[in-house]
Amino acid sequence: MLFKRIRFWTVILLLILYVIGILILTAVSLHDTRGSYKSGSSIHSRYNSKSRSFDYGLPGFKSRLRRPKVNWCTDLKYINPPGPAIALASFPGSGNTWLRYLLQQATGFHTGSVYKDYGLRKNGFPAESISNGSVLVVKTHEWGPRARCNFSKAILLVRTPAAAIQAEFNRQSGGHIGFAAPDRYKRLRGRYWQDFVVSQLRGWQNMNLDWLLNFTGPTHVIFYEQLVSNTEHTLRTVIEFIDIPVDKKLFKCAIDRKQGIYRRQKRVLSFDPFSDNMKSMLKEKEIKVLDAIYNIAAPAAR
Ligand SMILES: *[C@@H]1O[C@H](CO)[C@@H](O)[C@H](O)[C@H]1NC(C)=O
Ligand SMILES: *[C@@H]1O[C@H](CO)[C@@H](O)[C@H](O)[C@H]1NC(C)=O
Ligand SMILES: *[C@@H]1O[C@H](CO)[C@@H](O)[C@H](O)[C@H]1NC(C)=O
């Protein structure tokens, strides 16, 4: 009887401590939020500094609390009259949100999506869920005939599979700008991450090859890595492909604000999450997709 009581009160005490702990953590991160936004700096700085230890363990929680408002170069409009529907096709984790952000900044037009991501809709992408020619481009991660049939042109955004898969892993546990805690890679003795890599890699290959080989409309392929290293040039090629006039002032403003709020800062893990076996799988599929890209882009060179 006495033991039961002690156990009961111990549980209650632990619960109270747990709640207090959560409250303290929340207060700390809210405080941190205000601190880093007031300076008007990008979201990046805080990942390098003191908040690091608080990023673990509360998946997706803080990134939502902390997201600042986007500073648009101009008010966003719909395309009127609507043009052809253009797909922004990419495997998840390949930087499509960042590209949408850049396009909206540089052109002043909304971008849409075949999804209804509530967070994105509330934070800079009010045309989320619109998938016709009244938006500049329509985000899609889908493939197959039904996914392709409504589009007359496509921008295919390709990122190396290792980076895309890791970004998607981060997104699934940390939100659009958060991170997966390092111990998530070790879940189920690493099986969880292993299975994730294998199934995502299959998707990465299918998605990219399907758009490359089966989509019949004009297709513009860009690499995420190029968008990072040469943002200005790559963004310009995308806008030219979409075929709308470039407003010099807006374009410059977009480049000045290219950081945006949706880029996940690089965070180096203390270990390499990809085993040798995974790396050779990744390389093999990557080469398949690159072959398809170069054979389509330069058929004469074959
Ligand atoms: C595009 O989609 C939106 C939302 O579904 C709809 O309100 C609008 O009328 C559509 N525009 C065209 C041109 O189809
Ligand atoms: C394609 O467009 C038609 C007509 O707007 C719509 O009914 C259909 O659901 C769309 N298909 C897909 C796969 O989005
Ligand atoms: C292209 O489409 C065909 C028929 O729908 C399909 O069987 C094939 O898997 C597709 N190719 C790729 C690379 O997805």
From TrEMBL:
The keyword Membrane applies. Coiled coil: none annotated. The chain crosses the membrane at residues 6-28. The keyword Lyase does not apply. Keywords: Membrane, Transmembrane, Transmembrane helix. InterPro entries: P-loop_NTPase, Sialate-O-sulfotransferase. Belongs to the WSCD family. This is WSCD family member AGAP003962. It comes from Psylliodes chrysocephalus.
